[in-house]
Design goal:
284 residues; alpha/beta; 10 helices; binds adenosine-5'-diphosphate; binds magnesium ion
Length: 284
């Protein structure tokens, strides 16, 4: 076989970047700051939902965000992913500034073309899977890489099938979302996010809509991604999962980060009274 053929073959069978199996596939590079959010403020009318939040996430880190309902967790993810506009602060992905705040306190978002590039850095998985109901599973996964990234359809399909296999759904490519269980739909949603090869994945209570058995199958997938050093921010109520999978746990309450640290510290030896109370309510 000549060198050229060999190269083509290797490309054909190459596992998409970022989803390799095993430890040596995607070594974490902690020097690399994927996301930096500084002094983030967000209000809805008089309601101050985020009060000067700082969040930075490095390559390969898994950060879990816990906290009572209404504490601003979803709003933080929605601001990070530009579904909500911040009132103040700075959001930077890698070295690209999505927002700056002027001295007078006015926030400016970067231009449309640059924003489009920045949006390629992240994926978001919601509680309600948000799949296209009238598209097959395969179509759901292929849609964004083909339509947004304008990538070659055949290549994208190959990668989509690898992702489905990885999600344990190889036989569901031609099914429609309504034919799948909630857990299967959520795994399709994860595959769809991964198909864009994001630098970072956000999950907003990915298992809240699922029964316990289905929850486990989704958490297993997220755990596997963590083992492969996928950078992730996960809002969750699954405390033992958060304890097991995260490098860092953030406890939010009332729009502020009350406490953060490694899971053994936050869960095992919380310093703040509010954290203790919150964790106690979970044990009861
Ligand atoms: N679009 C909105 N308009 C008005 N209030 C909102 C909106 N989104 C969220 N809120 C309010 O902001 C607070 C924080 O909400 P949220 O970020 O969803 O909290 P969490 O995800 O921690 O439960 C809540 O009081 C919620 O009612
Ligand atoms: Mg929420």
């Amino acid at each position: 076989m000549n060198e050229r053929n060999n190269e083509t073959l290797q490309q054909e069978y190459a596992v998409p970047e970022g989803i390799q199996d095993g430890k040596n596939g995607n070594e974490p590079n902690r020097e690399r700051v994927i996301l930096q959010m500084s002094n983030i403020r967000k209000s809805f009318g008089d309601l101050h939902v985020l009060k000067n939040i700082d969040l930075s996430v490095r390559h390969g880190e898994v950060v879990s965000i816990i906290g009572p309902s209404g504490s601003g967790k979803s709003t933080l993810l929605r601001c990070a992913t530009f579904l909500e506009k911040i009132d103040y602060g700075e959001i930077i992905y890698l070295d690209r500034k999505a927002t700056i705040t002027s001295h007078s306190g006015k926030v400016f978002y970067t231009g449309k073309a640059e924003m489009k590039e920045i949006k390629k850095y992240f994926g978001l998985v919601f509680q309600q899977f948000n799949l296209f109901p009238h598209h097959s599973v395969l179509h759901n996964i292929m849609d964004a890489p083909v339509e947004v990234l304008k990538r070659d359809k055949k290549e994208v399909e190959k990668e989509a099938r690898v992702l489905l296999e990885k999600m344990g759904l190889a036989d569901k490519a031609d099914s429609y979302p309504c034919q799948l269980s909630g857990g299967q739909q959520q795994r399709v949603a994860i595959a769809r996010a991964l198909a864009m090869k994001p630098e970072i994945l956000f999950f907003d209570e990915p298992t809240s809509a699922l029964d316990p058995e289905l929850t486990i199958e989704v958490l297993k997938i997220i755990r596997k991604l963590a083992e492969e050093n996928m950078t992730m921010v996960i809002v969750t109520h699954e405390m033992s999962f958060a304890a097991g999978v995260s490098n860092r746990v953030i406890f939010m309450d009332g729009g502020v980060i009350v406490e953060e640290g490694p899971p053994d510290k936050v869960f095992g030896d919380p310093k703040q009274e509010r954290t203790k109370q919150f964790l106690k309510s979970y044990k009861e």
